[in-house]
Structure formats: C-alpha cells, structure tokens
Amino acid sequence: MTDTRIPGYESDSSLPNPAGMARVPRPYAHSNATRLLSAGAYLEKDFRTGVIRELVRDFYRVVAPSYGYDAVTVLAHALAARSLRRKQLAGVFLGELLTLILASKGLLPGVSAVLIALWLPWAFSFLRRVATMQALITWLSPRPSPSTSGAADYEYDFPADRALTPELVEKIALQQAGGQQEIMFARERFRPFVGAGWDKDDWTAAALLLPMKTDPTLRAYLRDEEDEEEEIEQPPVIPFTVEEISEYVAQRLESELRDDAPYGEQIENLVVERRRYSRAGSLPAKKRLFWRWRGVLLLPPSTVGEIGSFRPFEDREQYDAAREYLCIRVGAWDQEVVNSIFVGFDVRGNTLYSEFYPHVMPPVQASFHLVDRLPQRLGVKLLLRIAIDIPLSLPRQIYNTFWAALRAAWAQIRRLGRAAIGFVGVIDGSDLRLGRYAVDLVDTGAKVSLRELAASPDYHHFFQKADHTKYVQIVQRRLLEVMRDFLIEHNIDVFDHDQRGTTILDKSTRNYGDAIIHGNGVINQGGRGNRQSFGRGRGA
User: Which top-rank group of organisms is this from (predicted)?
Assistant: First the structure.
C-alpha cells in the first residue's frame, strides 16, 4: 500500500476523530467551485483521470494549494465516478462470460443467449446512468451554501471509497491549505505560484524601486509657526524590515477591505496570507528497470518541506532557496473566479524593491454547469427517457470503450520495463552525451491544481469579467495607498512612489478598460492620457 504519511506531521490520537475523519480544517468543502468540480468528475472522463493522477497516482508530489475549492471532496467524487465505470465494465464482462459458458454447456438456448448478451450492456449502462444521476442530484444539486469562514468541517460530506483513507485525506487537506505556509512547486514550473491560475502580464510587470531617503518636506511640517527662523533637524529614516512592511500591509488591507469596511462594502472572500515559495527537492531513484511498485518510494522529510526552512537573506539566490510573498486573494462568484496578487518586498542597498504578480483563475468549464440544470428527483418519465436513450448511444459507447481499451493496453506495453514514476528530464548538450549516466530524479513538487485542470478559456458572463477588473483595481489602489502610508510613517520621501503609482494605475486602467475609481478623495479617470497624481500631499 502507498505510504501517504506526512513527514514531520504526526496526528494527535487524544483529539476527537469521528468516523476516522481527518482533523485538518477544510473551509471550502461546500463552496460552489467545489460542487462544480465534483460534478465535473462525473461528467468528463479526462478531468476525472487528471484528478486521480495528481492526487493518487502521483502520490509523491506535494498537493497544490487550494484557491476556493476542496481537493478532498473532488477526489472522493472522482473515485466514486471511476468506481461506477469499473463496475459497469466488470458487470458486462462477467455477465457475457457467464452467458457464453452457459450457452456452451447447452444450459441456455441460442436465442436466449443472444438476447441476454444484447441486454447486459444496456442493463449495466442503465444502472450506471441512474447511479450517476442520483449522485449528482443527491450530493451536488444547487443549494444554499453554508458559511465558508474557515471553520473545521469534520462531517462525511463526500462518498466513501477504499482508496480515500483517513491518512490520504489528512495529507491532501494539510498540504492544499499550505501546510506550514510553505508551497513546494515543481522543478519544471517557471513561476512558483502553482494553483493561482494564469498570470496577467498585460496588467503590468509592476515593480516599485524606491530610494529610502528622508522626506524633504518634513522640516516644514515640524517647524513651529512662532519660531520660523529656528533650524529644525531633518528627522532620520526609521529603519524597517521586510516582515514589518508585509505585516503592516496585510493588516491594513484586511481591515479596510473586509473587517472594518462599512456594511455592504466589504469584500467578503478576501484572504491575505504570507507564504513561502520554494522549489521542491528531488528524490534520487536507485532502481529503474522493472520498477512498478509505487510503495517502494518513501519520501524523506527534507523533500516535502520542513518548518523553518526559509533561507536567510544572504542565501536566497540558490535553486532550492525560498522566497516569501504576500498573497492577496479575492474569491468572487462563490470562489469560481479567483483573483490573486502576489506582492514581494526586498530591501537592498538602502532601496525598497516591491514586485507585483497578478494572477486570475477563470471560471470552471461551462460543461460542468450542466449539474445546475438536472431535475431535482428521479421520476418515472426520466427513467424511461434514460432507458430509451441508451440503445441510441450504445454503438458510440462501445466504439469509445473499444478504442480506449486498446490505447490503455498499448500504454501498458510501452511502459513495460519503465518506472511507474515520472523522472525529471535531462537536458544534455554535451559532446560525450554524459546525460545518459545522470542519476534519475523524482520531482516531488506541486505541478498543477485541480482548478487549473478545469479552468475555462473564457468567461461565462460579462459580469464575471467586469468583477475581475473591479477587484483587481480596488486591491491595486488600496495596496499602493497602504504602502504609501507605511513609507510616510517611516519618514521616507514618497515622491518617487507617487510617480510610479500613477504610472501603474494608468497602465492598469488602459489594459483593463475604462473605469472610474473613487478612493479617499482620489479620482482616477480611465482612458489614455490620464496623468492625475496618485498620491496626496502629506497631511492633506
């Protein structure tokens, strides 16, 4: 059996654990994105196969972080859908085999044997469709969603499966929540923000490069009106660390946009987190030929991530080093459209360098929304319609099943003598082809998330695209304003910040379309040629 224990994480047996369920909180177990992804596991085979591949077959990989969905629930429904498919094929095969044996023994007349042979595919296809419809209606029909405030969810809210052990549930739930706030991404990924969707380079390759010099206008504000001739000493810059500015920005954004915002103006699904991103370690494989058993691969703790593995600033420029980013995430449309902005800070050479990487997770594939249009119960008319539709679609199903079986058999033949686990590719440009003698390495990092497997290439509604633009620009403006306040509090000149902020906002408006944004008395009119100042004067 595959070892799914989490190195460095041990369960406390003294805590209550009803029905063997994992104790890791799963805040998005009932989100709309989770429901649609779970329905997609029944509706599309390719997505179902991808889910099982990422979470079960490639068990040695770290699970990608969750952005508005619960991977445990989606995997449970994917395994249930696969089980229904396997039971259908096994039932048809065993039934046909039994019919053939009875006919060869003379226990069944020829006509009866032929009728039974034709009836078996219809019967098991009918049972599978009814079971699938019942699962979609019972588990995944649209209904009011409970609060997703982050409370632990210990109940059985998904179908049980032998492969979904409590250890596997606990591993997935812990790692998709970020584990110890460290994300281990795969070596083949160029950008570390796995699971966040697609990067939006058209927004801006934004970066703020600010010399940390004292604000020259401070003396005028500190001078006493009665003693204008008195010489006032220039206040020095108040030093700060990356942790301090990150904590300040996170608290201010949560307060102004969610916690302390007026009623009706809050961004309910706003999440601000500090996370570390580092390339995952690689496990050398000593056996390659005829290595078909996954259980022989045991991950040491260093390959999955350790507490306190963040490298100090003098050792950050290494291939396995970690970088810390502030993840500002807004889950719009009940977590179906997720906007993320990753903000990084660094202080080098008396200069504050800020980098911004916006990402967007587009809505779930349109075909997954078919679950919203299914009837609320299985009536007699619906069952009759299913029974009639099966003979009409049976030839196509037999054809698809036949070719799928041939492709699966050919894939198994091609994998004979090869490892069941994928290896890190070798780039060999040497004259002697020395890459042939390189050690095989297994990449243990997160490669792709389930939401990325189910992402739609287009928006389904005009308002979805409009809301994506709205949230990005609101967070963008507030972020720049909060950073400006922090610099002012530390006696730093914000002239360069205001100029760069105006450029970023103007470029963002031109990329995303025309909009008017009102914030703290500052109006930014969208469109080309806009050159209004972003910042206000000190004390305004």
Answer: Bacteria
Global pTM reads 0.78
Contact residues for 152 (Cβ-Cβ < 8 A; gap 6+): 23, 24, 25, 26
261 lies in the same domain as 160: no
Same domain, 356 and 470: yes
DSSP state for residue 7 in the 8-state scheme? T
DSSP three-state, residue 442: strand
Task: Give the confidence band of 445 by pLDDT, cuts at 50, 70, 90.
Answer: confident
Q: Are residues 189 and 172 in the same domain?
A: no
| Measured distance CA(395)–CA(118) in Å, rounded | 12
Distance CA 38, CA 74 (A): 5
**89 and 198 fall within a common domain:** no
d(CA 475, CA 289): 53
DSSP one-letter string for 155-216: S--S---TT--HHHHHHHHHHHTTTTTEEEE-TT-SSS-TTS-EE-TTT---EEEEE--B-T
Domain that holds residue 45: 21-178+375-414
Read off the pLDDT of residues 277-297 as tens digits, 9 standing for 90 and up: 988 876 666 544 334 444 344
Residue ranges of alpha helices (H) inside 415-538 are 450-453, 462-489, 495-512
378 close to 137: Cβ distance less than 8 angstroms: yes
> How far apart are alpha carbons 30 and 41 in whole angstroms?
16
Q: Is the pLDDT of residue 270 over 90?
A: yes
Q: Establish if 11 belongs to a structural domain.
A: no
